[in-house]
Specification:
Layout: E1 2-5, H1 6-11, H2 13-21, E2 26-30, E3 33-38, H3 69-76
Parallel strand pairs: 1-2
Antiparallel strand pairs: 2-3
Length: 81
């Protein structure tokens, strides 16, 4: 991934944004350390669209919340409280 310093980003912002518009991302760095990631924005493709993306492909057991409780109790039984 391309990395540019702050001064270069300010000087060439229009050209850099044209590259972002084609799907490329780049990092803005300060003194060589990554500071910000500039990445394309896609309307409606946010994290909320991923909710439920595995529906029908994965099953969660009914006892999921208590699975392994006997082992966990053994580990912590008599431990520092």
């Amino acid at each position: 991934m391309k990395s540019v310093n702050i001064n270069e980003a300010k000087t060439h912002l229009s050209a850099l944004l044209a590259q972002v518009a084609t799907g490329e991302s780049f990092v803005i760095a300060k003194a060589g350390a990554p500071l910000a990631l500039v990445t394309p924005y896609f309307e409606g493709r946010g994290p909320t669209e991923r909710v439920g993306f595995l529906e029908g492909r994965v099953s969660v057991p009914d006892d999921f919340d208590t699975m392994g409780s006997d082992v966990i109790e053994t580990w912590f039984d008599g431990g520092v409280r």
